[in-house]
Design a protein that fits this description.
This protein is an alpha+beta fold. It is built from 9 helices and 19 strands. Helix content is 32%, strand content 20%.
Length: 368
C-alpha cells in the first residue's frame, strides 16, 4: 500500500498546487490514515513541498490494529506533552519559506486555527475543503477487499446470533454479544454502536438498545457493522420472533423489501445520487409512508461509516464505479414497530454484473 499512499498524496498535492497552496495540513483522522497509512490519536500529516511528515504527540504503537506508516513519510514525535501536533507541524514550515498552507477548516476548531496562524503569521492559510474526502469516494480494489472482509465478518456474527435462543434476552445483551462476535471473527471492532430494536422499538434508525426483553411475536431489527483494517461495512435485517408473522408484519416487510430492491437496482455508474434515493422512497410513499422516513436512503462507507456520496433527496452528483454504499430504507410505525433492511454494496457497471452485494445474510422474513 506504500506506493498507493504516495499516489494519493501526489494527487492531493496537485490539487493544492492548482489552488495556489504550497503545502497542506491534514488533521481529520480518516484523511490522515488515507494518506499516510496510519492515524495515531491526535496526529496530523504535513504535506510539504518536498517532504511529508506525520507529527504525533507520542511514539507509534505497533500493536494498534489495521495500519502501518508509509515508509516514505517522515515521523516527527513530540517530546512528552509538548503541545498541539498541528501547531508543531506548521512550526516546521517557518524555516522553509513556504508562502501558503491549505488546512481542513471543516475539522479545525477556531482556537486551533488561531494558534496555527499565530505560529506562522506570514504563511497565507487557505481552505482545503473536502479535497481528501473527494479523493476517498472511489475505492481501489484493496480498499474494497477490506470492506468485503468486514462484511463477511458481520454476516458471520449475525448468522450465529440467529441460531441462538432470543426470547427473554434484552436488546442491550444482544447488541453486546454481536459486538463480541465481531471481534472474535477478526474485526478491529464494531463499525458503529450496534443497534438492536424489539417490538415497538424495531425499525427505528439508530435505535440505542435498552433493557426491553425479546417477546414472542416481536419484530426484531438488528443493524451492525464490522471494521477491518480501518474499513467499515453495515448490515441491517429484520426478523419475527417465535411465531409465524402477522399479516401486517408480512405486508410491511414486503413493502420495505421492495423499496430496498428498487434502491439496489438503481446503483449504476452515472446515476444521480438523488435518483437512487427517489427509487426507494417512491415505493414507500406510494403505500402511504411518506412521513417519518430517514433523511437519506443510503450513504458511502469506507474509513468512516458515513461518507460521501449521500443518497438523499437533495444530493448532488452522480455515482461512479467502485464506490461502496449502503441502501437502507425503513419504516417505523409508532407503538407497533417496523422494518429496516440494510445492505452494503459496491457500484459496478452492468458489464461487470451490476452492483456487487457484500452483505449476503438472507433477506427472507424469518421466524426465529
Amino acid at each position: 500500500m506504500s506506493e498507493m499512499h504516495a499516489i494519493r498524496r501526489t494527487r492531493l498535492r496537485e490539487r493544492c498546487s492548482a489552488a495556489g497552496s504550497a503545502a497542506a495540513l491534514i488533521s481529520r483522522p480518516a484523511n490522515v490514515r488515507y494518506l499516510a497509512g496510519v492515524a495515531p490519536r491526535d496526529a496530523v500529516l504535513l504535506l510539504g513541498p518536498d517532504e511529508d511528515t506525520l507529527v504525533c504527540p507520542g511514539p507509534l504503537d505497533d500493536r494498534a490494529p489495521g495500519g502501518r506508516l508509509d515508509e516514505s513519510v517522515r515521523l516527527h514525535t513530540l517530546p512528552g506533552s509538548a503541545g498541539d501536533p498541528a501547531v508543531a507541524a506548521v512550526g516546521l514550515l517557518t524555516d522553509r519559506e513556504v508562502p501558503s498552507l491549505a488546512v481542513e477548516e471543516h475539522h479545525l476548531t477556531v482556537s486551533r486555527h488561531r494558534a496555527i496562524r499565530s505560529v506562522a503569521p506570514r504563511v497565507r492559510l487557505g481552505d482545503l475543503g473536502g479535497g481528501v474526502e473527494q479523493l476517498r469516494v472511489v475505492k481501489d480494489e484493496e480498499e474494497i477487499s477490506s470492506i468485503r472482509i468486514a462484511a463477511e465478518i458481520a454476516d458471520q456474527a449475525l448468522g450465529e446470533l440467529l441460531e441462538s435462543i432470543l426470547v427473554g434476552r434484552t436488546e442491550r445483551h444482544l447488541a453486546l454479544e454481536l459486538e463480541r462476535r465481531l471481534v472474535d471473527h477478526g474485526a478491529d471492532g464494531p463499525a458503529f454502536p450496534t443497534s438492536v430494536g424489539t417490538g415497538p422499538h424495531s425499525g427505528r434508525g439508530g435505535h440505542r438498545p435498552t433493557d426491553r426483553r425479546v417477546e414472542e411475536g416481536d419484530f426484531l431489527s438488528v443493524c451492525l457493522g464490522a471494521t477491518y483494517r480501518g474499513y467499515r461495512c453495515e448490515i441491517g435485517r429484520t426478523f419475527v420472533i417465535g411465531t409465524a408473522p402477522a399479516d401486517w408484519q408480512i405486508e410491511l416487510y414486503d413493502l420495505v423489501f421492495a423499496a430496498q430492491r428498487a434502491g439496489r437496482e438503481a446503483l449504476t455508474p452515472g446515476t444521480a445520487c438523488r435518483d437512487v434515493d427517489r427509487a426507494a422512497r417512491q415505493v414507500l410513499a406510494s403505500a402511504g409512508h411518506s412521513e417519518g422516513l430517514p433523511r437519506a436512503v443510503g450513504h458511502g462507507v469506507g474509513l468512516e461509516i458515513d461518507e460521501d456520496p449521500q443518497l438523499a433527496p437533495a444530493a448532488m452528483g452522480k455515482l461512479d464505479a467502485c464506490v461502496p454504499v449502503t441502501v437502507e430504507p425503513g419504516v417505523h410505525l409508532p407503538g407497533r414497530g417496523g422494518v429496516r433492511i440494510d445492505d452494503t454494496l459496491v457500484v459496478r457497471p452492468e458489464a461487470d454484473g451490476g452492483p456487487e452485494l457484500l452483505t449476503i445474510t438472507t433477506k427472507e422474513l424469518l421466524a426465529l
